[in-house]
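Q: Could you write out the predicted structure for this multi-component system? I'm mainly interested in how the pieces pack against one another.
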Amino acid sequence: MPDKKRITLKDIAKDLGISVSTASRALNSYSGISDDTIKLVKDYAEKHNYVPNTMAVNFRKNKTLTLGLIVPELVHYFFSSVISGALAEAKKRGYTVLVSQTEELLKNEIYAARTMIASSVDGIMISLSNETKDGDHLKELLEEGRPVVQFDKVLDDLPTAKVIVDDFNGAYNAVTHLINQGYQSIAHLNGHQDVNNSVERLRGYKQALTDAGLETKDEYIIHCHDISEQEGYDFTKDLMQLPDPPDAIFCITDLVAMGSMKFLKEKEVKIPDQVGIVGFSNWDMANFVTPTLSSVDQQAFKMGEKACQILIDTLKTGELGKDETHLIPTELIVRQSSKRD
Amino acid sequence: MPDKKRITLKDIAKDLGISVSTASRALNSYSGISDDTIKLVKDYAEKHNYVPNTMAVNFRKNKTLTLGLIVPELVHYFFSSVISGALAEAKKRGYTVLVSQTEELLKNEIYAARTMIASSVDGIMISLSNETKDGDHLKELLEEGRPVVQFDKVLDDLPTAKVIVDDFNGAYNAVTHLINQGYQSIAHLNGHQDVNNSVERLRGYKQALTDAGLETKDEYIIHCHDISEQEGYDFTKDLMQLPDPPDAIFCITDLVAMGSMKFLKEKEVKIPDQVGIVGFSNWDMANFVTPTLSSVDQQAFKMGEKACQILIDTLKTGELGKDETHLIPTELIVRQSSKRD
DNA sequence: TTCAGCAAACTAAACGATTCATCAGGGGCT
DNA sequence: AGCCCCTGATGAATCGTTTAGTTTGCTGAA
């Protein structure tokens, strides 16, 4: 059992014949310490490989330099990218990150929030589960003075900073692109109308059509329930059986787009010649399907970065985050599935 | 600024007219406290929502109930699954997890290890970066008595517990499956021979051929450098231009398999009729390519679980982990790309 | 010469929980 | 009655660091 005991401030002080407080101040470059002493202590610390005991520091300062990050699903291109961005920003600013996933269950989310409190993180970033309808468990954090930043799936009436994807413009640009490619009858596989993202994307879709002088048809707008590949398949089938089938489909998600393309390929409908497809999310698989799938990139990495940045800024200024919403711009990635010229 | 001050043991003691130590012992169900007092204290704590200050406990006990987890790449199906498994196990046993990624760079790995030490995690799980050739930065942890568990990409001569995929049997089963499907000339797109996984998979490939009485041909074994889709494409082209081209390809990775299939589809070679393909990793995209890709699932979730379990067991027993290697069995997922009957 | 002023160092308290060593009091035993 | 032992409770030390408050000693001005 190695357990090589770490050297402490006390050891330094004793060996150098100074007091513990002097050693502490010297290392932290506090005022009221001579340059000589500072050098002396720093050299000694360096040489003896002094590492301050973080637990003691945390305890004393009542800060941990640790942030909590709660996501619904970890094995997910979008969320792992968000985490990646948050980790990068946190690292840059000297913080570490405690990660937890809820599997889209409220009870896990509450548990995670409690755990974060217990681990005394300085603040948290969270993307809410689908089940979450109120934020009592987050209020507990706020009441303790630990700031919260919501991202992606947020609760509007919870007074915290929020970072969300610019779904409206993402959808708007995607549909406008389809129009520019010459598609005339564009359908939209949308999601639940009680989910914000779905609402915004639908709004963007409609606005793009309107702005281009195209009419919106109700039968071209279908709402998925569980946003699965199967639904993409089934609803595309429905769409293509309409008396006046669409010549392009804007899908709420790449997964739905996969199902959509699967059906079309089975029926030997040519993509993009006969029907154009654009997805949303830009999963890595968009590159690997045939034809490759055009998609709206949500810049998840940037979202993680931004959320983390806001959180740390809040911690630094000491103000308990303002209730501001930040939009992350999307980027349309055009691939084969929608390029007709 | 809310900052509702938490109640402390001292408060409880004062209000109840007992000593702090009695309160502490009562809450921790120590011996030598009457049942009456225990009930009294527990009820009071419950009522006033007492939460022990974790930082103080950590400090006092020199334990954090926090584990470190270091992976090369977070945005990656395999690694995010590992993390997911580790988080699940950690949660089950009351631990939290600090996550960090190295982007396959040694310098980041060293930094991450340092950060973990500084954050005083109780122990860490790590999958090494490609650049890592020695484990000095991990020895620092071991010397502090913090156990380390290596997984996936490991350094054999570092005396820690290791959890790795059973690459040999995974490859063996994949190739045997191809043989059973009637393929006779099976090629293998392998990786670097200084990476353990590659060596093992190659060994499994050869053994399967030998056991089936088939001969191994050198020109059927190609070593990729960066294991990319492009390489899969290029090397498959090379293979198919041989005077005696293979009728099946076992690819070191799904990504390589993607490239392989891309080439074959472009040349209108029928998969699986003319050429069978099996990949390794079972990425989610294996389900979305056409035809769907047979692949060896590495059970990443289980690997994370196992690594975490070993780590926590080590912590509980207090022994600094034995140098044992645990193999995680693989599972062959047969899809269209290799099913000929 | 004396003392205000200041820099540099020190002492000690504090953070909140755990735990070792101690103590009071009561019951049982001789 | 005197002694021991046991139970239930207490006091105080401790973990390593930070920091408020104080002391020391020196310089330079009155």
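A: Regarding packing and overall arrangement: Residues 18-22, 25, 32-34, 37, 56, 59-62 of chain B lie near DNA strand D (CB under 10 Å from a C1').
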